[in-house]
């Protein structure tokens, strides 16, 4: 199975697909029609050769995905605003909103998945003196918090539907990369798991952080938090390289390394209905010549 190079994201009642600098957001509107918005996103530091260097490109790709993700979500949500005036205002303030949403998301993620696991692992320091063991405990707590968070939000109706669109996104990409025509029936038969999924990336981050954070040996708790935050780009960069390799190779080692992320996708993807698959296909059609690819 060869990589198509396209990636995507589930949004509110829709799917975003990106191919190189072009991306499309397809949304199932309240009137049941499919709206497709096609735009270009050059990315942070476009044209700068240094961003193509290993590790650094992962940091840039992570930042780009957050910015693009907020834009796609803002567009999809605009169809479900109750008042037309709010819809107009959201377009005017899209740039400001994107900035604050990303900033807020980063703060929540740091608090929940960086600071909290560290503080909780400190409770074991009264009984355990080994910094390596404490670091492993911190990592396990981080992974448990991540899984618990995903499980808890999956009970929300809107999130569950988003997970269904996530499944449609994966199935559509798998259909193309396995060499089948992009039809609803062909997409339906595909797996809803994919090695390049953002879920796998997040899990890679959780595992890699255990190793990287072991090198932080300072007594001040506040300094440990700061150093962990500063090392997040490094962890993200390493994780990106791993998932990039896994997405373009198929061997026993890749299968083993990818297994936890593929298992996690059982939580973050659900089986879509045919209407959701149609939306995912519309998004791909807008930015990717899949017939030429096949």
Describe the structure.
The chain is an alpha+beta fold and about 290 residues long. The chain has one domain (about 5-115, about 125-290). About 65% of the residues lie in helices and about 10% in strands. The chain contains 11 helices and 4 strands, in the order ββββααααααααααα. It has helices spanning about 55-75, 85-90, 95-120, 130-155, 155-175, 185-190, 200-215, 220-250, 250-270, 275-285, 290-294; strands spanning about 5-10, 15-20, 20-30, 35-40. Strands 1-2-3-4 form a 4-stranded antiparallel beta sheet. A hairpin with a 5-residue loop joins β3 and β4 (about 35-40). The longest helix is centred in the middle third of the chain and has 29 residues, at about 95-120. The radius of gyration is 20 Å and the shape is globular.
Annotation keywords:
single chain, 294 residues, alpha+beta, four-stranded antiparallel β-sheet, 11 helices, 4 strands, 64% helix, 9% strand
């Amino acid at each position: 199975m060869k990589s198509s190079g396209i990636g995507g994201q589930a949004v509110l009642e829709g799917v975003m697909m990106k191919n190189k600098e072009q991306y499309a957001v397809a949304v199932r509107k309240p009137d049941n029609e499919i709206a497709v918005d096609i735009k270009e996103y050059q990315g942070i530091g476009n044209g700068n050769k240094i961003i193509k260097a290993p590790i650094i490109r992962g940091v840039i790709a992570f930042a780009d995905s957050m910015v693009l993700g907020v834009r796609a979500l803002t567009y999809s949500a605009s169809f479900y605003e109750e008042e037309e005036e709010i819809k107009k205002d959201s377009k005017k303030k899209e740039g400001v909103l994107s900035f604050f949403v990303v900033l807020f998301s980063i703060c929540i993620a740091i608090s929940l998945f960086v600071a909290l696991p560290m503080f909780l692992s400190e409770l074991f320091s009264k009984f355990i003196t080994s910094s390596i063991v404490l670091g492993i405990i911190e990592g396990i707590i981080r992974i448990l918090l991540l899984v618990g968070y995903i499980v808890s939000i999956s009970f929300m109706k809107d999130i569950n539907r988003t997970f269904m669109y996530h499944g449609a996104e994966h199935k559509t990409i798998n259909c193309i990369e396995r060499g089948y025509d992009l039809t609803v029936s062909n997409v339906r038969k595909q797996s809803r798991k994919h090695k390049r999924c953002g879920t796998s990336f997040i899990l890679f981050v959780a595992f890699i952080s255990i190793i990287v954070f072991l090198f932080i040996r300072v007594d001040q708790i506040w300094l440990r938090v700061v150093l962990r935050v500063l090392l997040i780009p490094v962890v993200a960069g390493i994780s990106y390289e791993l998932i990039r390799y896994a997405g373009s190779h198929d061997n026993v080692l890749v299968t083993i390394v990818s297994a936890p992320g593929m298992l996690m996708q059982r939580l973050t993807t659900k089986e879509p209905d045919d209407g959701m698959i149609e939306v995912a296909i519309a998004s791909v059609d807008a930015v990717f010549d899949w017939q030429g690819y096949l």
